[in-house]
Amino acid sequence: MATATSHQSIVSFASHRSSSSSSSTISQCLLREPLLNLPISKGFKIHSSLSCNNHTTSKKRNLCKIKAVASSQTETSVSSYNNNTFLSPSKNIPDLSKKKSNEAALILIRHGESLWNEKNLFTGCVDVPLTEKGVEEAIEAGKRISNIPVDVIFTSSLIRAQMTAMLAMIQHRRKKVPIILHDESEQAKTWSQVFSDETKNQSIPVIPAWQLNERMYGELQGLNKQETAERYGKEQVHEWRRSYDIPPPKGESLEMCAERAVAYFQDNIEPKLAAGKNVMIAAHGNSLRSIIMYLDKLTCQEVISLELSTGIPLLYIFKEGKFMKRGSPVGPTEAGVYAYTKSLAQYRQKLEEDSEVICS
Questions:
Q1: Could you say which of 214, 252, 255, 259 is catalytic?
Q2: What SUPFAM superfamilies does UniProt report for this protein, alphabetically (predicted)?
Q3: Is 214 a catalytic residue?
Q4: Tell me: the pLDDT tens digits for 88-136?
């Protein structure tokens, strides 16, 4: 019963997301942004040294390793957290503290099982919710990270990722309220303002971004995976699903998904980590694989074999401009997780002390 109630409340909370019509199937999926005009972030370049497969043309970039090339300092517009406007989405996310830290936590979570995962259908950018199992996975993920600090949350624009983020944060010991920010119109921004400083301090901004959406599967979306393999052949379907730079009919390749996801990460998320903000990203298998490719400096051959389980959080520590992979917390009381860094250990200790004060 409690699970069902949580499920309904999250669906209701996230039901006000905008939709945009377009003559292009891909632009509909990516919410207001045509695929062929996807912006690449300033200072983000992609280098290649080897061809990933024999199908790549000379005009196409052969992305075998993604590297960030440092750009000149970019001006960032920062909103004041104490003014009348609660929060501004995307690049105008408020810095909750002006002091820079040498260290920040980055948590990656693939959404819990969706209704189309359960039915073995190609989902892509079709917006379907979690199953009951997916809700349970999201709650379990939240328990695993309940002692790890989170200052801001990024999700895709799809409900299954947003449900996962909201359900996970409900389990956090700080008991801050995750609030989805709306930038679909000026009216949406105005109507969603919060005017209490105390309430702001007890809230966590949730930033939806279409750039973190799942890879768009084109004409495969909604098809049964097994039936599609029987129709087109297992080798062809495997190539569409697991190659790096070969898209399905009218869809995206992993390479194309990586361009938008990594660009968004560099422009919007990495600066927050550099400023000492602890970030959680709830997204999808392919958009997260793209980001992990960037974080771990994987080749295109390595990333296509990377598998991510639903609802299992991955922890990275960002320190002195470098990302250190720390695996997956198996539980909120696992000592090893908090021994990774001094700041995580101190944060957990503070939570314990606050809990003792409340209990007494």
A1: 214
A2: Phosphoglycerate mutase-like
A3: yes
A4: 344 444 444 444 457 999 999 999 999 999 999 999 999 999 999 999 9
